[in-house]
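Work Package 3 committed the consortium to producing structural models of liganded targets before the mid-term review. Because experimental data for this complex are still outstanding, the team generated a predictive model from sequence and the ligand definition alone, so that downstream docking and mutagenesis planning could proceed in parallel. The input record is reproduced below exactly as it was submitted to the modelling pipeline, together with the SMILES string for PGI.
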Amino acid sequence: MVERRFPDGFLWGTATAAYQIEGAVDEDGRGPSIWDTFSHTPGKTFEGHTGDVACDHYHRWPEDVHLMQQLGAPAYRFSIAWPRILPQGTGQVNQRGLDFYDRLVDALLQAEITPFVTLYHWDLPQALQDRGGWAARETAEAFAAYADVVARRLGDRVKHWITHNEPWVVAFVGHFLGVHAPGIQDARIAIQVSHHLLLSHGHAVPAIRAASPDAQVGITLNLSPVRPATEAEEDRLAAQRYDGFLNRWFLDPLFGRGYPQDMLATYGELAPTAQTGDLDAIAVPIDFLGVNYYTPAFVRYDASVLNPLKAILVPPEELQAAGYELTEMGWAIVPDGLYELLIRLQRDFAPSTIYITENGAAFADQLEDGAVRDPKRIAFLHDHFAAAHRALQDGVPLRGYFVWSLMDNFEWAHGYSKRFGLIYIDYETLERIPKESYAWYSEVIRANGLVQ
Ligand SMILES: OC[C@@H]1[C@@H](O)[C@H](O)[C@@H](O)c2[nH]c(CCc3ccccc3)c[n+]21
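The resulting structure, written out as tokens with the ligand in place, is given here.
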């Protein structure tokens, strides 16, 4: 008996990204991306792992679509590699790159799986980085032109488009912390990059709509509820600043309010350079907000940190000591945080539709006697699905949920050392081995809800 049933037509899905699963980095005219450059730079990734082969999805995609079909998930979120479409970032289109995604989309539709296409999931063509990358305003225009090329080819069949995956990570992990490509460590550049990413979204949306009639277009943000480490005033204020840094910096301009005043004041002369019309472009209406939720942000005041935020995240070992269970990434498992986030989004921004475009966890999965028992992942997903169900009951317009990830894959700086998949990948043989969570999720999809 299904206790917590989801609405009819709820879009259960799985998610992946091009550089993390495809491999075939030199095939069919693909050009290099900044992640090819970064992962091949000594010291940047775990044991020097690269996406050169990854899961070899570029060649094994028929089997992967079959595994999706067996799972029974009605939707699949994947990203398109800009360097396959425009190897130099602009100019000459590579038809063989378009052909790959054309075949994939047709196979998904044949399998009655709705494709959700992410146009940018971090693999910027290196040729554009050589011309300034996201720090250069021209890259925003190049992105709109890329979106136009893709939407013209696929827009008759793809009706759900996500312009960007996690502009916060691209800007601040890639350009301030420097632990992601292109590995820059400069607060001013990072803030300017965040503006150009939002601007590129604003220019891409009209291009997609023009080429893909009645398409649903949105953007995916990594969002977290922010919790102060203590009720001390200085921690509460630090949490407020961190909420501005992580959440409101992107949500406010996307929902037509411009950049948050408190953050412009905090950033001071680090604030981005914007041109007339930029904020109007960024505020172009969207049909849905994509939310990637993994864990809350636990924040405390710290005057010593270099950045103007004067706020730091509570370290994982402290969270563990406080009683939180952690994933292999050191992220606290807090299903209520998803409920809290969704309710806040509904209260403060009231998007017409929300999709959870990523939620999942890495655990120390072991292949034993040809099987992978992953009870922790089942418990994680169960509890987060329950939190999403509570939010639905409280009126949140949640229309779908994509589990990260369909299969184990290249986890950026962690390489292949972190496994998020519902399907285990044996990297020696590239064999796909569904984990117990795959069968469990298949039952949730069939029941369209949680049984207990
Ligand atoms: O880390 C798991 C996944 C990645 O594999 C996806 O490509 C990416 O969209 C994604 N975002 C997040 C949460 C934001 C985050 C990313 C990287 C580092 C810290 C936080 C987790 N994940």
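Reviewers should note the following from the model. The first strand starts at residue 4 and ends at 5. These observations will guide the Year 2 experiments.
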